[in-house]
Amino acid sequence: MVTRSANTWEAEAEKSRKVRKESIQEQWLLPQGKLPSPDRMNVLSVPKESGLLTQKELDISESDATQLVKKMGAGDWSAEEVTVAFLKRATIGHQLLNNATEFMVEDAIARARELDTYFAQHKKLIGPLHGVPVSTKEHIWHKGRVASGAYAAQVDKIAPEDSHLVRLAKNSGAVFHLRTNEPLTLMTGDCHNNIWGQTLNPWHLKLSCGGSSGGEGASIGFKSAAIGLGTDIGGSIRIPAAFNGIYGFRPSASRMPYDGIELPGAGQESVKCVIGPLARSIDDISLMMQTILDQEPWDTEVALLPLPWKSVESSKDITVGIMWSDGIVHPHPPMTRALKKAKAKLQAGGIKVIDWEPFKSMEILQLIVTLFFPDGGKAITGLVAASGEPMNNEATSFLQHARELTVTENWACNAQRDQLRAEFHALMKERGVDVILCPPYVGGAPERNKMDYGTYTMLWNLLDQPALVFPTGAVVDPELDPVEIDYKPTNPIDQQQYDKYDPKVFEGAPIGLQVVGKHLRDEETVAAARLIEQMLQN
Prior knowledge:
By secondary structure, the protein is an alpha/beta fold. The chain is 39% helix and 12% strand.
């Protein structure tokens, strides 16, 4: 790799900015007079207020994928109408949130017209994702387009083909119209890089949209796409889902097709990165999972487990263990309020609920951070140094934990990981718990670029357990969620997170909860999440 001098990375980054700028359709931008005032923090309703979308386009873009497919199957909406509605909304979204890295307008509309022609000729849908607009995190390959992974050194790196998952989704009728932002290093819980800048949270512009699939979180939160595809090695799907008031699913490793993703450190298998959906409903999570796995991706990508997506009905005959704390950091008041309400609702609905005592959380945290960077972080720092671009504070802080391991040390860590997985699974069986209900984060979204605690999601990556985040409908409320003045933090990390809580700063931030299942029981986890959500809504 050619190392460029420090003063040339801006020129390299400008190449990708130019691609983005040229992909934006100016006729769909908000005129200056319709932009929200600078002091307005929640911009979710701007598309409706703007007058740029017709009522039909609003109805379309506010529908989830499952509803869209039904409408197109009935002939009520065409794929082109659906695609244009989401492109218009996504353009406004990017104008407000800076979440796009590239619009794929021509390809998307051309594909939608092909689908409409097929429907007119055959009087049926081409597949279960027929006409569904799908956005993807930038480092997921699209043939002939740059996949830089947000590194300035890779702005000339062209994807030779679509990623495996993109190909399968296209086979089923999906329309890919939008690519979204991610943080430098792809290893932090916010969404900022030197190429495309900072992505914002549509619920509250001063709060974090999460990361590393932060552009996807903002995209689905703003309804710029019906379904999004992100990746998750430590919470990168679930954290943005929680912060943007949407659904996000981290499948067990080796279930969803992963070939065709631009990520430093290929071959690192101690903690596998996974790809999964961000969505607007649990129905859509199931739709994406089943659609992809019904095509038997393991017959092409041999590293995958040959496990079809099976039908699992939601059943009240389950036991839910509520993990009130990870044993390191006590959650903020709105998160505890959401858990208390969930417990009351579940018990009132006849669900058995027990308290789950955290298990070796600090050991798991220390181990996963060690296994993230067995090369001492060289794959990441080498790419950053190659262009001379600056490393941001969040990545620098995280990388300070990187330590290069010898082969023997890596083996020992893998053995420790496997022992923890076995012990945790045995503990769930011993306690009779089917799923764990817990926070995805200590509270609502933190302030931008101040997301520095991820144990509530990282636990399940190390243990390789499926986890689904869903919105509770609750938001941070200063009257309901005052500071716990009587709480005494138990350790320095706990103290740091306790000191950050100010209900006025986080007012209006959505609160999500996380449902965690047993290893490879992905279908049961989704079914349990559906049941729990239904109970909370009753």
